[in-house]
Amino acid sequence: MSATTTPDLAAPRSPQIRKKGVNLEKVGWVYMRVSGVLLVVLIFGHLFTNLMVGDGIHALDWGFVAGKLANPFWQWWDILMLWLALIHGANGMRTIVNDYVTGEKVRKTLVWAVFVAAGLLIVLGTLVVFAFDPCNGVTSDSVFWEACQAL
């Protein structure tokens, strides 16, 4: 049988030496707070303009979306919302993985997979917003033919 010793809690602790450089955990913590506040503003602004202004929810159709995505203001609004939300979510998933996954290799693999997935979605979403062409593939028998001819 071996005796276990407990640490002396009354003993003075040696001062912790802080590593020089950027504290990434602190940067992530601050990012979550700032992006959370910005996302609340962006999301409620998005919902308000889409659901309450003008004809409200009855105006939501292909033409409404095409008109919004043709406006640079709304393109950048949507891009900012997309980027902030995906990075915010990926950072939250990274925190959960770091808290609950004990194996070093598994944890690194999962964190890597989360950031690759977020990066892929950011790239694809950005391409959709900036490369969106509502008239791409519209033929003369389409209901959008006249609208696209007017452009």
From TrEMBL:
InterPro entries: SQR/QFR_C/D, SuccDH_FuR_B_TM-su
Main location: membrane
Keyword Cell cycle assigned: no
Organism encoding this protein: Microbacterium aurum
Transmembrane segment boundaries: 30-53, 73-90, 110-132
Pfam families: Sdh_cyt
Origin superkingdom: Bacteria
Gene3D superfamilies tied to this protein: Fumarate reductase/succinate dehydrogenase, transmembrane subunit (1.20.1300.10)
Designated name of the protein: Succinate dehydrogenase
Localization (cell): Membrane
Keywords from the named record: Heme, Iron, Membrane, Metal-binding, Transmembrane, Transmembrane helix
The keyword tRNA processing is annotated on this UniProt entry: no
GO cellular component: membrane
